[in-house]
Amino acid sequence: MNIKLYDDLKNEFSEKSIKASEDLISLASSRCEREFDYDYFPTDGGVMLRYVLMVLPDIKGKRILDLGCGNLEKNEESGYDNLRCSFHDDLRFAPTLCRALYTLGADVVGVDLGSLEGEPYEHYRKNLLSSNSLDMLGDFSFDLVHSFGVYTSPYLRKLTRRGDEESFAMVSHTLRPQLERILKPEGILLVDHWPGLEEK
User: Fold this and answer.
1) 142: left (phi over 0), alpha (psi -120 to 50) or beta
2) Cβ contacts of 27 within 8 Å, gap of 6 or more
3) Which residues make Cβ contacts (< 8 Å) with residue 118, sequence separation at least 6?
4) Count of alpha carbons within 13 Å of 137, Cβ hemisphere only?
5) Which of 58, 85, 96, 162 gets the highest tally of CB atoms within 10 A of its CB?
6) Could you give the CA distance from residue 80 to residue 87 in angstroms, rounded to a whole number?
7) Cα separation of 144 and 191, whole Å?
8) How far apart are CA 21 and CA 100, in angstroms?
9) By CB neighbour count within 10 A (0-12 exposed, 13-18 middle, 19+ buried), where does 104 fall?
């Protein structure tokens, strides 16, 4: 499996790649503001989109899965409002990357524990701790699988009832065989953090 970590890619930014991604981020921003009624395009969405474009510059028509993509629910127990974050009144927990990729013509799929009802792209409500959480997705069908912030999710800690590292290891162990099945042979796994995934 071809694994790319956010931290490893930071040194690979070039003026050319930044300029190319800025143009597409600007386009996605204006389209998201129009289609999803954003007052502005969240910074996190632009950062994630830049990394996706680094590893997959031509995303139009490419099948891309975003794991733990964000959702449209307000979770009173965690204090997170996934439509608006009360601290900055932003869209921090909305499925911003999926929306941006959708507006740019990618064949995007969002998977999250919370509801994505009404979103215009393919999406599923799934618990990633389940060994069959990605069974609905075809073999060798994805050009890219992206995951950012899955391990810092309050939902994950609540579900596992364990500390961060143990929770991370559980998800990694559960997802690895599923990701190997759904990624194309030349497909890329782009993650911010995935303990133990680098070694088989």
Assistant:
1) beta
2) 103, 104
3) 72
4) 32
5) 96
6) 10
7) 11
8) 12
9) buried
Report the C-alpha gap between 194 and 90 in whole angstroms: 27
Task: State the Cα–Cα distance between residues 157 and 200, nearest whole angstrom.
Answer: 24
Residues 101-113 have pLDDT tens digits of 999 999 999 999 8
pLDDT tens sequence across 128-167: 888 899 999 999 999 999 998 876 666 666 666 665 666 6
- Whole-model pTM above 0.90? no
Domains and CATH numbers, the chain: 2-191 (3.40.50)
77-103 pLDDT tens trace: 444 444 443 334 445 678 999 999 999
Query: Cβ distance 42 to 66 under 8 Å?
Result: no
Both structure tokens of 152 = 């810092």
Q: Where would I find the beta strands (DSSP E) of the chain?
A: 2-5, 63-67, 74-75, 80-81, 107-112, 122-125, 142-147, 183-191
